[in-house]
Amino acid sequence: MTSLNTDVEYERITRILNSLVKHFLREPTNKTSGKDVKATDLTLRQQQTFDFCIRILGRYTECDLCPVPFTEHIYWPGDVFFYAHVRFSPIERAFAHRGLQDLSKSQEFERIKPTSEELKFERIKPTSEELKNRFIQNTLPIPTLSSKSSKEKESLPPKTILTKQLAILENNNEISEILLLRDIVFIFQGIDGQYIKYNKNSSYIIDPKAEISRSTRGILHRLTELGRLFRHVNDFVCTNVNDTSIGLVGQAFCYALQRELTEYYKFIAVLEAQVTKVTDSQQVEHSGLSLKRVLAWTQESLLNLRMMSELVDCCKQKRGGALVSTIYNYTNHGDPFIQQFINNMLEEVSRPFFEMLQRWVYGGELEDPFEEFFVACDPNVEEEDLWQSKYTIRPDMQPTFISPLLAKKIFAIGKSLNFIRYSCHDNDWVITNAGADKVLKYGDIIALECSIDATYTTTSQRLLNILFTKYKLKEHFTALKRYLLLGQGDFIQHLMAQLGPGLSKPANTLYRHNLTGTLESAIRASNAQYDDPDILRRLDVRLLEVSFGEAGWDVFSLDYHVDSPINTIFTPHAMQQYLKLFNFLWRLKRVEHDLSSAWRRNMTNARSLYQIEELKKDINTSRLVCSEMIHFTSQLQYYILFEVIECSWDELVKDYTKSGDLDSLIEAHNKYLKNITTKVFLDTSSNQSYHTRLLNIIQFIFQYKNGLDELHNFSLKEILRGDNANIERGQHKMIQERLTETAGLFKREVIGLLVALANHHDTDLRFLSVRLDFNEFYRKGLINL
């Protein structure tokens, strides 16, 4: 225990002396006593400081650091020696302990016979010259070299020799490079070393008490970065490699990191073998292994781990396609090494994604248990809504190397395959063209796009071919135009003629089976009987919800039944639009029918009605107003049936002929319906009052027609009464005022509509205003108003 305490004391004293020597060696050389002192010599103050250090630290028995005097053997130069009881300070013992001074070669003492006082441990006071060179002369190695080199060393100035000896002292105090190399190998594996520890701040700390030079500490700090990065990456892999919640792509990412770490382990194994070999031989200088060389060897591994650590930080919260996109973004880096590293990583990470993509494109199968693919499936959606609602795109899971157009094609391919299999019941074609021999993987994006384009074209054409041949899609388009948009004129005329008397009754007296029989009669009486039986079978009668006071005209409607797979194009919303168009056109047709009936009855009974002189003016006026209303209705029907429906139909035929897939076909049909509804209802974004004005005009026509019926019945009644000179003037005046008022309201609404249409930005609507007022009749009325 005493020996251990002594060694500790030596260490402490050595450090104190080290700092003191550094202090006085840094003092500049100055002029002393008017003499120039060389920069290589010790100044008087430096010598005094050094002497004071030696005197204070322990030549005396009173020194606390060394309370007990030491007796040593002193060896003199030559063959003669004797034992002298000399007391040595702890500093001298420290020097001797560190091997920096060979006391056996000391020349600080003269060969004299010790006196009795010396035997009492009295100090022999050295001369100033001896004190000056006390620790300098003896720092020279034992003269085993040539006399020339020995003389050169003896000729060195004292300050230079002391500085060199200080460097030797510091080097001997430093931890050996072998131990540091062993520590670094541990750090590279994420294990704490003897002098280097991992702290809570995710960094390595070098023991501040360790005797390591500043330059060596700098190298160690640079080397510990490799261990820190390794721990960061390895912790992520160990935490997530067996965690299924990160998904298949996340597990592939962990596997790719583990593969890179395996290569890193191989490098560590080679490095550890080299360090072990050097440790066993204890010859670092001759082995060529050093911290600087290890730093150079680890540069490639350091760059790899930096990239892996960066990817780990960026991809912690990412899954599926989003994770692949995050990694792919680093391929835009300008460093070829980083690009190659990321591409190698992506080949492994994107493998599950491309396997899901391959099943979706070539089989229509969506195997995505962890919702990592950019296509999502809702299993609760019925088969009828397969195309519209069952599959959706997840934009956040779409990789950045897949463009929006390519993603849309991929999405359409899978939907088409499932639509062919489940809605069109053509599973054989899907199995035959499954593309089992084709493999998709990360690499050549251009080749991937070419493969997707070819599959997209083949699948889309097959689907459209099935719809137009097996399911007669074109015939359904034509049937809807002919029957619900009143394109089949003879059928509509027969239907209206046969249904007219029954529809004039209250709505609650109608029965569907009676109306269905009338519909079949109208079909047999017109050219509709030559249509496909499957088309005619879908045509049916529909009664709308009945309200109090409504007539049969208000609730009657034709209906067209659609089923899978054509209901994908003719969606419920689209069929609702067809129903609204039919009701409006049917109402307009009824106006024309009623006005024609009123005009025909008026003409046939004109000679009888002219018998009453007071009614001639009213009858002539009603003819003019009725002709005005017929003109308005005829021109409006012509505009709707020819300039709107026929032109839109021509665009639809062109669009579905060149459509590439079912989505474009649906879009063309929706565009067709939108154009028709917008122009038929005069319902534009600039002014929503057009349709309201039009409905008001139609309502005034019905009121005027009812007034004409009252006038006609009143005339017949007066003729039958036989007193043509004395008619019921009160009732006549009431009918006359009602007709005049209704005609005025009709004309005012028409003028307002024409003015609005004339200023509209749409060319067709402006042209409609010209057709309705071709002779400027209403313009003159506007001036009069």
TrEMBL record:
GO terms for biological process: cytoplasmic microtubule organization; meiotic cell cycle; microtubule nucleation; mitotic cell cycle; spindle assembly. Residues 473-778 form the Gamma tubulin complex component C-terminal domain. GO terms for molecular function: gamma-tubulin binding; microtubule minus-end binding. GO terms for cellular component: gamma-tubulin complex; microtubule; spindle pole; spindle pole body. It is found in: Cytoplasm, Cytoskeleton. Residues 181-470 form the Gamma tubulin complex component protein N-terminal domain. Pfam families: GCP_C_terminal (PF04130), GCP_N_terminal (PF17681). Keywords: Cytoplasm, Cytoskeleton, Microtubule. Belongs to the TUBGCP family. This is Spc98 family-domain-containing protein.
